Amino acid sequence: MWRSTHPVWAMAFRPFYLLAALWGAVAILLWGFGFQGTPSLSGLYWHAHEMIWGYAAAVVVGFLLTAVATWTKQPPVSGRLLMALAGCWLLARTAALLPQGAPWAGAAGTVFFLLALWGLGSAVWRSRNVRNYLTVLALAGFALSHTAFHLGSPPQSALTAGLMTVAGFIGLIGSRVIPFFTAKRLNTPSPPAAAWLNHAALILPLTAGVLMLRQNTSIAAAAAGMGCAGVAAVQLWRWHRRGIWREPLLWTLFVGYAFTAAGVAVTAATAYRSAGIHLIAVGGIGLLTLSMMTRTALGHTGRPLYPAPSGLTAAFWLMTAAAVLRVVATAFAGTAYLHGIRLSAVLFALALLLYGWRYLPWLLRPRCDGKTG
Question: Signal peptide location in the record (predicted)?
Fold first, then answer.
């Protein structure tokens, strides 16, 4: 496994989906059961830092560096570069647990993002893949939010920017893959392309995030948040087909996309900011990343795309329940709130551990169809 030619280093989804599942489970359980961070990265900031720039970043980078090979027909990021990426990510996670490790976590995380930008940007530039210039810029914005956090920007502002960037990624990538996966699975025609809606699904969460940096709530931020929800409603209506609710690998995408847009609206337009943040973080990021890791890893390991592997439907329901419970918990205080957080954390972790248990052998072995990847 430590050789650059090992199958795990063939494409970025292999190490990063596995690392995301394992670290996401560990980090959420640590936070849910009393870990208060470190002297240099305390409490809530450690939790948010690790879920946004640890868990979510691993899935985003793993997906993008895998997908860009298909988008651009360029060789995938693999071998030693992929090992360096994973090493920087692991160093950042380890440093974030050390008493005075925040500066090292910031440095390692920044190098991780720079390497990811190189891998994505160079492939897009060499192929003149104009469609994905915006994707590169979005990843650069995500990297900038991480660096700003470690260079002394107000922590809440940098975290908000990071979270809203992930929401924007969900809007953009979801707008591409949800109708495509739906049409493929149900053998139905795809709706006409609407590039302006796809771009709005990325830009509106980012706009809401920027406006909230200046003021937690404002008419402009609320308008951007509500606009995000409106665009999502139109998109989901355009993509909806009879039969999606019978296919777990489809309904999870629809529900995760809806959770994300609703979370952006609630965060930007209401006083219930914690509820909105966790609609995005658990309902959107948690459910949609789990579904995408399940679906895309099947294809890239040469396995049948449907039905979902045994145990994964249960994982989807566990993640959905974790999201609902975490949002409802914000309405309570004291012991009820604490129990709600802990139960949600357990459900979230179980969902990811089910994924890790099922996919670990597949991610560490060559494709079952004998192809490279």
Answer: none
In degrees to the nearest 10, what's the CA dihedral of 286, 291, 292, 294?
120
pLDDT at res. 4: 63
pLDDT tens digits, 256-312: 999 999 999 999 988 899 999 999 999 999 999 999 999 999 999 989 888 889 899
* Residues 284 and 182 grouped into a single domain: yes
Domain residues for 69?
Answer: 1-153
In a domain, 370, yes or no: no
Neighbours of 223 (CB within 10 A): 16
Q: What is the pLDDT of residues 351-361, one digit of tens each?
A: 999 999 999 99
pLDDT in tens, 86-138: 999 999 999 999 999 999 999 999 999 999 999 999 999 999 999 899 999 99
Question: Whole-model pTM?
Answer: 0.95
Q: Between 217 and 50, where is the model more confident?
A: 50
User: Buried b vs exposed e over 107-127: b needs ≥16 C-beta within 10 Å?
Assistant: bbbbbbbebbbebbbebbeee
In a domain, 372, yes or no: no
Helix (H, G, I), strand (E, B) or coil at 42: strand
Q: Which helix (H) or strand (E) holds 81?
A: helix 79-95
Give yes or no for a contact between 315 and 355, defined as CB atoms under 8 angstroms apart.
yes
CB 333 within 8 A of CB 24: no
Residues 175 and 266 in one domain: yes
Helix (H) or strand (E) segment spanning residue 275 = helix 273-278
User: Which of 153, 173, 207 represents a domain boundary (last residue)?
Assistant: 153
